[in-house]
């Protein structure tokens, strides 16, 4: 497939190159402008990979809900991405990153391109002074905004899957406004914005807790307040399975998420302007992949042992749990540890999903197990394998957990007792597609063949 450098250059030319390299300075650095270009490029490419995870969540959730709720869950996923983008632009980014004190940033509105970049773009001539004023920042400011914005949309996606099939559309969207504009940015500022958790030594490379557990806590709180789907739980602790309608679609969604996660974790190096950054990103990619692989394999083996059958949905959540688990510390230099971290994440999902059911919490897609439980584990793993402080990691988990439980509960309860959270029994029985959207995702089903 490839051609060796010796064949490309010829042996004589290769010898000259070897001599030249041997006599070159031990350290070569790119220019500041080149580093600026590569750093910005990394943010943008990683950002659109993470944006593609919105499609992954939509397909995963569409595959795991029943047919009568498919269009609604698709609408929720594209709508929450749109709302997250607008709210993070209006106020979220400023709360998370601008003038951060110990607990939150600026309550100012709108985040726009820097004056230096606008001056360069609008200048008749790109003078060295104008270029220097831009490249001194290290990257384009809006490339960083874009990369950070797609993360907040991921946190909101976690909530939609758990609460599917019985929550009203507009109350859910109101929660997304508050989550993406305020709750997520405030707790994110504590670490990534340089706030009090960062000063305490808490470490979360790409967001096992800051993104995934945050979504998981909001989902868990909402599921408890909202209640289970009608018929999900019976007397005497009985759990009635409600299988998803389209497992091929759920599998596709998982693989899309897996792909997007390379941008999620790799882009969190936050730079690609040096050999050090490039080498570090390669390590992150490999660890991310290995952890997901281990999550799948462990979930398959455990379901075979426990249930005498291999469970596809558990394998899918095993992949996601492996990815979530490694997200807090994907920079492990011993790649075998990534297998351990991801494998434990896959095992935790297999045990957590039935435990959540026994507690009579109805999580339609298993997001609480895959994102909250695995997120907690991945954050702890940094203190165990990654050289971080276990005390600091526990502090961060508890602080963010308490913050999200309290604030989410307030928002859910206010809506429950004012506008209402849940559709009525008739709408739930009919399906939210017909009840709230007036359409069906698969209108041909049950109506016989249609002639052209």
* Terminal CA distance: 48 Å
Overall structural class, as computed from helix and strand content, comes to mainly alpha
* CATH-level-2 architecture: Orthogonal Bundle
Tell me the CATH superfamily.
Ammonium transporter AmtB like domains
Major sheet description: none
How many runs of DSSP E, i.e. beta strands? 0
Number of domains: 1
Order of helices and strands: HHHHHHHHHHHHHHHHHH
User: Which percent bin holds the helix content?
Assistant: 55-70%
Cα gyration radius (Å): 24 Å
Look at the structure and give the mean pLDDT: 91
Instruction: Assign the CATH topology.
Output: Ammonium transporter fold
Question: What features would you describe in this structure?
Answer:
With 452 residues, the chain is mainly α. The chain has one domain: Ammonium transporter AmtB like domains (Ammonium transporter fold). 69% of the residues lie in helices and 0% in strands. Helix 12 crosses helix 14 and helix 13 runs parallel beside helix 15. The protein is globular, with a radius of gyration of 24 Å. The chain starts with a helix and ends in a 15-residue tail after the last helix. The N terminus and C terminus are likely disordered.
Brief description of this entry?
By secondary structure, this protein is an all-alpha fold. The protein is 69% helix and 0% strand. The chain has one domain (32-229, 254-422): Ammonium transporter fold, CATH 1.10.3430.
């Amino acid at each position: 497939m490839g051609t060796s450098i010796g064949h490309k250059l010829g042996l004589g030319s290769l010898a000259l190159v070897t001599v030249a390299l041997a006599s070159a300075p031990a350290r070569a650095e790119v220019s500041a402008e080149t580093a600026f270009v590569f750093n910005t490029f990394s943010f943008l490419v990683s950002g659109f990979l993470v944006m593609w995870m919105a499609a992954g969540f939509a397909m995963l959730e569409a595959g795991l809900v029943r047919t009568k709720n498919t269009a609604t869950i698709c609408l929720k996923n594209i709508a929450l991405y749109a709302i997250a983008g607008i709210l993070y632009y209006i106020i979220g980014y400023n709360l998370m990153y601008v003038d951060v004190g110990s607990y939150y940033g600026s309550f100012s509105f709108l985040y726009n391109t820097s004056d230096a970049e606008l001056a360069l773009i609008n200048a008749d001539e790109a003078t060295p002074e104008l270029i220097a004023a831009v490249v001194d920042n290290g990257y384009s400011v809006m490339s960083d905004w874009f990369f950070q914005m797609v993360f907040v949309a991921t946190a909101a996606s976690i909530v939609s899957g758990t609460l599917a099939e019985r929550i009203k559309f507009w109350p859910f969207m109101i929660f997304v406004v508050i989550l993406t504009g305020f709750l997520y940015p405030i707790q994110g500022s504590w670490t990534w914005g340089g706030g009090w958790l960062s000063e305490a030594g808490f470490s979360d490379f790409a967001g096992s807790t800051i993104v995934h557990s945050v979504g998981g806590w909001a989902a868990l709180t909402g599921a408890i307040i909202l209640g289970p789907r009608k018929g999900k739980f019976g007397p005497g602790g009985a759990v009635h399975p409600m299988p998803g309608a389209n497992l091929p679609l759920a599998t596709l969604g998982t693989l899309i998420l897996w792909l997007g996660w390379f941008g999620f974790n790799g882009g969190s190096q936050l730079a690609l302007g040096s050999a050090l950054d490039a080498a570090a990103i390669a390590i992150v990619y490999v660890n991310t992949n290995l952890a997901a692989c281990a999550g799948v394999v462990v979930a398959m083996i455990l379901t075979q042992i426990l249930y005498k059958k291999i469970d596809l949905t558990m394998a899918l959540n095993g992949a996601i749990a492996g990815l979530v688990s490694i997200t807090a510390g994907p920079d492990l230099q011993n790649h075998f540890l990534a297998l351990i971290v991801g494998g434990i994440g896959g095992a935790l999902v297999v045990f957590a999903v039935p435990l959540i059911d026994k507690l009579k919490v109805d999580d339609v897609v298993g997001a609480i197990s895959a994102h909250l439980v695995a997120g907690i584990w991945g954050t702890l793993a940094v203190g165990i394998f990654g050289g971080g402080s276990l005390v600091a990691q526990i502090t961060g988990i508890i602080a963010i957990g308490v913050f999200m439980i309290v604030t989410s509960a307030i928002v859910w309860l206010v809506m429950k007792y004012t506008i209402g959270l849940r559709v009525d029994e008739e709408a739930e029985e009919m399906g939210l597609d017909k009840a709230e959207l007036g359409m069906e995702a698969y209108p041909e089903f049950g109506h016989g063949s249609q002639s052209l």
